[in-house]
Design a protein that fits this description.
Length: 255
């Protein structure tokens, strides 16, 4: 997304193929993707899955001089790129994620998505762009759903949760990701984002690590793991994480 309608997920730094082995996802990570509940048209995905999965995980950045401080993303052009053989849709989809100043965040159009990938020199097959955008948008919605789960469980008194801003930090491992990659043998997440949420007047930071998941079907489709949790930067967040951890242990041994 561009300007105040920027997109909450920018995975443009990830270009590798999906691995054949399953990464050891951290506790609390949930899988997103696959055929069940996924809006992606997998008939269009056949033969493109591994090549497109890395680029499709998010919208890329463009001209760095026009970065918006709310989303750390630039303006994204709707014009056809040099060498593009066919026009792509310039229609943008409104997300289900509320903005702090009213309305909802918007996703980039297929044309904006294509231009962003081309500008950064990443693989951008025109015939796969629609699928890439579907995956990108789906990941956004999954992350917001996970945040709402946290909020409804521990702060159900707030009924008007909003996303204020977000920032991609792909080169910085979160403390939890560092622990799991260093001591538990987990694969490194391919991206990290920090989302700032307005909880009825209180700003709360969430950390999101993005992992590749295992594909257990015979269809060439992407599967991602998202580990979404409050950042440990306030006593309230620490208590929420402790309660969630205790609940998980109870369910594991006594549930």
């Amino acid at each position: 997304m561009a300007n105040d309608s920027g997109c909450p997920v920018d995975h443009s730094t990830y270009t590798g193929p999906m691995p054949s082995h399953h990464p050891q996802l951290p506790a609390g990570a949930s899988l997103a993707g696959g055929a069940d509940g996924c809006p992606v048209d997998h008939s269009k995905w056949a033969g493109k899955g591994r090549a497109a999965a890395g680029a499709a995980a998010g919208a890329a950045a463009g001209d760095q001089q026009t970065l918006n401080p709310n989303n750390m993303m630039p303006n994204l052009s709707q014009d056809m790129a040099a060498g593009q053989t066919a026009p792509l849709s310039t229609e943008r989809t409104v997300s289900g994620i509320p903005k702090a100043d009213g309305g909802r965040w918007e996703y980039p159009s297929p044309q904006q998505f294509y231009n962003a990938l081309k500008r950064k020199g990443k693989e951008a097959p025109e015939e796969a762009i629609d699928v890439m955008v579907d995956i990108h948008n789906f990941l956004n919605e999954e992350c917001w759903t996970e945040i709402r789960k946290w909020e409804s469980k521990y702060h159900c008194d707030c009924k008007s949760l909003k996303l204020v801003k977000f920032q991609g930090r792909p080169d910085e491992l979160s403390p939890k990701a560092w622990f799991y990659t260093t001591f538990m043998g987990a694969d490194r997440p391919f991206d990290r984002h920090d989302w700032t949420v307005d909880r009825c007047g209180t700003r709360v930071r969430y950390v999101i690590d993005y992992y590749e998941g295992v594909n257990q079907s015979n269809v060439d489709e992407p599967v991602f793991g998202v580990d979404v949790r409050p950042a440990l930067d306030s006593p309230t967040a620490v208590m929420d994480r402790l309660k969630a951890g205790a609940s998980e242990l109870w369910s594991r041994f006594f549930g």
